[in-house]
Amino acid sequence: MNQRLIVWREMLGMQAMPQCEKLVSSVLKRTARTRIAQLIGSAYLALYEAVMDPKSEYSNASLIMRYKPEQIKTIVDGK
Fold first, then answer.
1. Could you give the angle at which helices 3-16 and 26-52 cross, rounded to 10 degrees?
2. Where are the domains of the chain?
3. What is the C-alpha radius of gyration for the chain, rounded to an integer number of angstroms?
4. How far apart are CA 71 and CA 74, in angstroms?
5. Residue 1 has what pLDDT?
6. DSSP 8-state symbol, 53
7. How many Cα atoms sit within 13 Å of 18 on the Cβ side?
8. For residues 41 and 73, is the Cβ–Cβ distance under 8 A?
9. Half-sphere exposure of 3 (CA within 13 A, CB side)
């Protein structure tokens, strides 16, 4: 994973998951992180599909959505 994506992932974690760190239960913490990652991935997929849809008429869709949904999923999953 390139350095920019690593930094982005870390920033995303700080923004989206700060309350998770306050959870005492490791099971709840893991469940919350997993669900947040799923929600981020789903939201990005919906946005990606909308922008990439030819009906949207974006002439530069691939420049707007530089990452594929699978890449975002990998980033937020931490794998």
1. 120
2. 2-77
3. 15
4. 5
5. 47
6. S
7. 3
8. yes
9. 0
Distance CA 33, CA 44 (A): 16
pLDDT in tens, the chain (79 residues): 456 656 666 666 556 566 777 778 888 888 888 888 888 888 889 999 999 999 999 889 999 898 899 988 888 776 5
Closest to 45 measured CA to CA, from 17, 69, 22, 63: 69
Q: Which of 72, 25, 26, 24 is nearest to 48 (CA)?
A: 72
Residue 59's identity, in one-letter code, is: S
Q: What's the DSSP call for residue 67? A: S
**All residues at 6 or more sequence positions from 75 whose CB lies less than 8 Å from its CB, including other chains:** 1, 5, 8, 9, 12, 67
